[in-house]
């Protein structure tokens, strides 16, 4: 057994708190905002089935690897990868996985804070009754006025960034742990309340059938890739957050057991959000495949028409804020941990510095919707000619940095890290469970993530290829 390291930042008080924290990192706007509309876009039940399979084959093995690397290194992702590369006798360049994760998290936080600010604004709009009796044009106008006003966007962006930075500045137990102990139970409670309301809309069965009755004729090859990509991104993989949270994991906690629990809870939130949303959508004659506007430009119409809409609309947007908040604190943590370890900063100073820099970068996202909406910084490059700063940050992180980071984590854990080290850290013995994980992380997961990476970067049309190979239900 190798020498056991300890984190200078402290550790979670229990395995349960780590599960709450990592689930909070994984549960974000993607679960509540994105999952319902991509499910609607891709036909419902068949998409959900493929998504669950991808969580099992891709998400869980990579998350196990990332938590394992974090706990073994007990440092920020950058220093963890440098330490483990030396321990494995591998190239020092593996530390760039850590750098890529930290930078990706920093970039994501800069625009994530702006989008979370929209949810904050909508909490107050819902609570004030602003949605009562409104129609589609009024709701669209309300949203357009919000994003086109740089001062209002800046105010909400600033408020959310302050909320995030204050939590992280208080440390692992004083800040992160206290926040997730409060926010995660509240998040689940609000979800259950919303599902309870959905059960009384008269369209609950229709919503369940849409979600859980597979119709593979409606699932295209591109839909399979969307499910695969979302299964990877929804667990916060490849951005350093899970790795740094893993570095605070108590020594005796089971990595396999906690990872499985986190994946199940994350998936449960996504499913519950869809179970709550689709009956409301059907009850109000709305379109389930309404796309990204489903939350901010479609749901307010439903809340404005239904009994108790002020209460349930407020709860719904509070749910979005809590989900975004727990994810945001995990995005800032890797950079803060690195500054404390490498430059001797006090945690408060490091959190304020990273939060301040991310806030400044977020101004580019704020202005992407108004003052700079027609400015394309890389307009001279074909692939980026039509992308604002916001679209560029989103594309580069989601389509390049995160899948590439996850791919490299799988390769490092399966090929560079010594087998005895992963056996030692996972503590599964050398039986069926460990061998299954080892096979997936070495062969299956890298190929699957590699396909997603090639497709979403436009290097290979996997959807077209699958459509050509498998005619009929797989027709793109």
Explain this structure.
The protein is an all-alpha fold. It has one domain: Orthogonal Bundle (Hydantoin permease), CATH 1.10.4160. Helices cover 74% and strands 0% of the residues. It is built from 19 helices and no strands. It is globular, with a radius of gyration of 22 Å.
Please provide the count of β strands: 0
- Straight-line distance between termini: 51 Å
- Percent of residues in beta strands? under 5%
- Indicate the radius of gyration in whole angstroms: 22 Å
What is the third-level CATH name, the topology?
A: Hydantoin permease
Find the structural class using helix and strand composition. Answer: mainly alpha
Mean pLDDT value: 88
The helix count comes to 19
Which word captures the global form? globular
Which H/E pattern describes the elements? HHHHHHHHHHHHHHHHHHH
**Under the CATH scheme, which class?**
Mainly Alpha
Q: Any idea what the CATH architecture is?
A: Orthogonal Bundle
Query: Can you summarize the main beta sheet?
Result: none
Work out the count of structural domains.
1
Low-confidence segments: 470-476
How much helix is in the residues?
over 70%
């Amino acid at each position: 057994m190798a020498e056991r390291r300890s984190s200078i930042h402290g550790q979670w008080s229990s395995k349960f708190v780590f599960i709450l924290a990592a689930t909070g990192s994984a549960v974000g706007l993607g679960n509540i905002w994105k999952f319902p509309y991509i499910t609607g876009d891709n036909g419902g039940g068949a998409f959900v089935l493929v998504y669950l399979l991808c969580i099992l084959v891709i998400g869980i093995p990579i998350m196990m690897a990332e938590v394992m690397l974090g706990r073994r290194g007990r440092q920020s992702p950058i220093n963890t990868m440098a330490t483990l590369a030396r321990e494995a006798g591998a190239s020092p360049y593996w530390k760039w996985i850590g750098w890529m994760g930290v930078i990706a998290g920093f970039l994501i936080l800069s625009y994530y804070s702006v989008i979370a600010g929209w949810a904050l604004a909508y909490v107050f709009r819902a609570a004030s009754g602003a949605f009562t009796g409104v129609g589609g044009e009024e709701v669209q106008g309300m949203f357009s006025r919000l994003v086109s006003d740089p001062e209002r966007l800046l105010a909400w962006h600033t408020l959310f960034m302050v909320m995030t930075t204050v939590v992280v500045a208080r440390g692992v137990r004083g800040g992160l742990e206290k926040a997730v102990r409060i926010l995660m139970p509240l998040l689940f409670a609000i979800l259950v309340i919303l599902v309870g309301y959905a059960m009384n809309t008269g369209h609950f069965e229709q919503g369940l059938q849409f979600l859980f009755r597979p119709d593979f004729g409606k699932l295209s090859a591109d839909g399979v890739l969307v499910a695969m990509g979302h299964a990877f991104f929804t667990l916060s993989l490849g951005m350093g957050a899970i790795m740094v949270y893993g570095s605070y994991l108590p020594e005796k906690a089971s990595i396999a057991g906690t990872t499985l629990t986190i994946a199940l809870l994350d998936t449960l939130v996504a499913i519950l959000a869809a179970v709550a949303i689709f009956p409301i959508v059907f009850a109000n004659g709305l379109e389930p495949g309404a796309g990204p506007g489903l939350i901010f430009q479609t749901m307010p119409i439903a809340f404005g028409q239904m009994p108790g809409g002020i209460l349930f609309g407020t709860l719904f947007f509070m749910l979005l804020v809590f989900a975004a908040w727990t994810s945001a604190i995990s995005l800032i943590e890797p950079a803060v941990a690195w500054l404390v370890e490498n430059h001797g900063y006090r945690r408060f100073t490091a959190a304020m510095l990273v939060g301040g820099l991310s806030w400044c970068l977020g101004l580019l996202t704020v202005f992407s919707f108004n003052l700079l909406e027609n400015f394309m910084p890389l307009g001279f490059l074909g692939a980026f000619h039509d992308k604002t700063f916001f679209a560029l940050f989103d594309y580069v992180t989601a389509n390049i940095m995160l899948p590439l980071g996850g791919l490299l984590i799988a390769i490092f854990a399966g090929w560079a890290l010594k087998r005895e080290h992963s056996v030692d850290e996972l503590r599964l013995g050398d039986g069926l469970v460990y061998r299954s994980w080892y096979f997936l992380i070495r062969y299956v997961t890298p190929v699957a993530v590699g396909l997603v990476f090639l497709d979403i970067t436009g290097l290979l049309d996997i959807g077209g290829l699958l459509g050509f190979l498998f005619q009929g239900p797989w027709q793109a």
